[in-house]
Amino acid sequence: MSLLSVNHLNVVFRQRHQDLQALFDVSFSVSRGERLAIVGESGAGKSILGYSLVNLLSKPGVIDSGSVKFDGRELTTLTARQWQEIRGKKIAMIFQDPMITLNPVLSVGDQMVEAIRSHTRINYNDAKKLAIEKLAHVRISSPAQRFEQYPHELSGGMRQRVIIAIVLLLRPEIIIADEPTTALDVTIQAGILQLLKQVCEDNGVALILITHDFGVVSRIAERTIVMYAGRIVEQGPTLEIINDPQHPYTQGLLNALPQMALPGQRLNQIQGNMPALNNHPSGCAFHPRCPYATDKCRENTPGFVFSGVSTVACFAIEDMLAEFDPEGGWQGEVEDE
């Protein structure tokens, strides 16, 4: 059984005159110890999905329908008190900006001890010892000294390491990391990502990494989900998606990577913009930006088809696969030589 199972999840923002849908029929699962990436541009619905999983959606956002199960337990019906048993202790979240999580008027140590003692009956001295051990575990130099310092006295990379240490204190089974290196210098990002990967491997923790950067995904994730306008458009093993992307949107994201352009050449980009919630296109949401769009794409929403080891929601792929017979032979016309 999957550790986390999401089925047909729909999220809407309740408005006075209309409901604006942010997630459409999202389904996926995460196994114990698995590292999953969720990729897409800003506005794709990645963070909303992450917040939905831990019941942190800001009003007027609500889960309209669907199921989120953790270890077989339905999460969408839990009370606030029941969530205290899950959030942090079973499912933890790391945000883009560590200062959102850290209290600026409390020392790092006070916050770590408070996190431990809010879920256990451990005494202060033992909690302090455990906190310092976790600071050392995430490779913070002079952990006893950092324990006494305040967040503003630490660098951005150090603060993010503190957050990872706090998350590990309660031994969660899943960590959701929402763009955890966005606010950091490029030279610090690789170290934080490698640390996150290592602590998950060492502790058997599953990781859901939310990012817009395929370069990050290739180093961390075993499996990848690509989202566009609130829908999953492709998912499969990370290396397969990077080496052989199926959906035109995935192809566009990979072609836009800096390494895909020659030195001095203009970077590739996907024409157009992500649609707003109040202006969602009919049919396939990507069709206004897709070079392969047809009337079928403009009028209908594609379902998922298997293409290799990935699943993809694209009529162009579906039509191409339909031209093969069940024996694997090509059914289209072959030109005479």
UniProtKB/TrEMBL annotation:
It comes from the Bacteria. PROSITE patterns: ABC_TRANSPORTER_1 (PS00211), ABC_TRANSPORTER_2 (PS50893). InterPro entries: AAA+_ATPase (IPR003593), ABC_Ni/Peptide_Import (IPR050388), ABC_transporter-like_ATP-bd (IPR003439), ABC_transporter-like_CS (IPR017871), Oligopep_ABC_C (IPR013563), P-loop_NTPase (IPR027417). Keywords: ATP-binding, Cell membrane, Membrane, Nucleotide-binding, Transport. It is a peripheral membrane protein. It holds the Pfam family ABC_tran. One of its GO terms (cellular component) is plasma membrane. It is found in: Cell inner membrane. Its main location: membrane. One of its GO terms (biological process) is peptide transport. It catalyses: a dipeptide(out) + ATP + H2O = a dipeptide(in) + ADP + phosphate + H(+). Residues 6-254 form the ABC transporter domain. GO terms for molecular function: ATP binding; ATP hydrolysis activity. Its EC number is 7.4.2.9. NCBIfam families: oligo_HPY. Belongs to the ABC transporter superfamily. This is ABC-type dipeptide transporter. It comes from Marinomonas piezotolerans.
